[in-house]
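Lab notebook, bench 4. Still working through the backlog of constructs that have no structural model yet. Next entry is a single chain of 99 residues. Request: give me the structure tokens for it.
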Amino acid sequence: MSHKKLYSIHDKTAAMFCPPFSCVNDAQATRAFQSNMQNPDSNIARFPADYNLYYVGEFNELTGELEFEEPTKIITGLEMLKTIKAEQPDLLEANETES
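Model written out:
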């Protein structure tokens, strides 16, 4: 595979995008966002309404070229929180009691 998709997390409070990261597809990027959401020490977990995951372009691994596109929202922090609560309610409760 010569192309990787680029994603960025937008911080509404800071009014800026975080540095982009690469993934194979939206599902893998969503899983990385979910992992951050499940880390009780992350700001994404503390303030889920402030963060959204966006697709921002592609990186060609063969040529090194970057192709940026208009940011496209993949999932919001609140949508991810709902998904986690529905799929893994015990995990979130354990994280909340540790805080």
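Notes after review: The first strand starts at residue 3 and ends at 11. The mean pLDDT is 90. Flag for follow-up if needed.
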